[in-house]
Structure prediction request, 301 residues.
Amino acid sequence: MKRFERLEQIRRLDPERDFLQIYRLTATFEFPWDYTRALELALYRTYAVPSIGRLLAQTAELTDRTQKRYDDTALLLDTVVEHGFGSDEGRTAIRRINQMHRSYDISNEDMRYVLCTFVVVPKRWIDAYGWRRLSRHETTAAAVYYRTLGQHMGIKGIPDSYEEFEKCLDDYEEANFGWDQGACEVSDATLDLMASWYPRPLAPLVRNATRALLDDSLLRAFRYERPGAVTRSLVRSVVRLRGRAVRLMPPRKAPHYARQNWEIKGYPDGYEVAELGSFPVPGVRGCPVPHKGGSAGAAVE
Prediction:
């Protein structure tokens, strides 16, 4: 197979009808490493919305059990990509995602924003660092894929096109990005997790390199010191150079799913999709996170 042959295959498909096939080809054949990094960054961006970052800090899922939360999120999302929305595995993964979200008071606006990050951040990342830019077919298919996922999650007011997803994301971040102590703790824990994947002497370098990939709005929200121009330029140049190197490599012959990533540490002996994620505390109904002067929130099913 020639380097651009799979892209030609994608362009022969209908992005509205064949969105799952296109998204799977893009995410698991063309850009598996980039999609992993981009979706990590997508979820990381959500911490800068105080209502999201604060809730994540209160649950302690991303501060006390950071690796497990990372693994479970990646594996649940990956299951739908690999098996599809209509499969038993895909339905089980979506059911688990919905059960966890219903355990907490999460606004529709926050849920919709998180969905937008899954559409917009990968395109921006790949266009900047990938071995080629995303095609219009791939961009449209990704928007349809996550619109479908959002519908299965009961999210209201989902954008209809990539451009609408992008506007929703930019407007929401402009209106809501801000400082929160709990959110900053979640951010720090996530950076520590990423650093833990490498030999300990490299940890400071990994943290600095990761911060160099963040835009100024994120750095301001977490009150991180802005990396120097030389550091930022060097790190971003290295990631771009990787993309150029991939362009010269033979096309991938087999799909690479997130479950195959070496960063997934918690399930060396395998896992059951129905057992992934967090579960409500027995005897507790409604949101288990205490709210000042508020009620318990939505009931857990």
